[in-house]
Q: What sequence folds into this?
């Protein structure tokens, strides 16, 4: 399956389909009985912002069907510089030169329900690592809800190191359960 996939930047006209894939992800998370992503976030506004900044990627099959999405962000992630976890790479302070961030951050990743268990997200993570290396980055960071055992197992299988819990500081009403588990992988 993954040999027929490609990963590319999402186009503005694909914002609705990317949002549909994220909605599939929300339903998957809801089955675990956890509150992550259950209050409207992420929505089409997040998708449009990611597309505008050149950070929204999609996986498509040979027929052009979009099967997965993730945001791959460069620069200093405010949540991660506030997180008191033992990062594997230097953790620049918020407001410092974005060039000091030696990592990319994955956020808002999901697989279309029809493509679950077909290797889509593993493919996207591998391509993200290639992008990080090409940009001279040292690692990729990501976080997930403590109760999202499937994502935690997936990240471990992909070679990410679980670093510890932290609380989000910028979500406001978008999320009600703010504890996350930080992960990082050297690339």
A:
């Amino acid at each position: 399956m993954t040999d027929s996939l490609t990963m590319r930047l999402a186009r503005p006209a694909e914002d609705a389909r990317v949002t549909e894939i994220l909605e599939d992800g929300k339903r998957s998370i809801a089955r675990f009985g956890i509150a992550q992503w259950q209050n409207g976030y992420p929505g089409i506004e997040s998708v449009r912002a990611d597309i505008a900044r050149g950070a929204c990627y999609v996986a498509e099959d040979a027929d052009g069907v979009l099967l997965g999405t993730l945001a791959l962000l460069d620069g200093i992630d405010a949540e991660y510089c506030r997180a008191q976890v033992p990062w594997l790479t230097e953790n620049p302070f918020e407001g410092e030169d974005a060039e000091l961030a030696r990592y990319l951050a994955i956020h808002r990743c999901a697989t279309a329900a029809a493509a679950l268990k077909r290797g889509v997200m593993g493919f996207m993570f591998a391509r993200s690592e290639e992008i990080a290396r090409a940009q001279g980055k040292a690692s990729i960071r990501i976080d997930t809800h403590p109760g999202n055992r499937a994502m935690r197992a997936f990240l471990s299988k992909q070679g990410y190191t679980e670093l510890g819990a932290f609380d989000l500081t910028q979500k406001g009403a978008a999320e009600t359960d703010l504890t996350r588990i930080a992960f990082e992988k050297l690339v």
The chain has a mean pLDDT of 93. The CA atoms of residues 37 and 88 lie 27 Å apart.
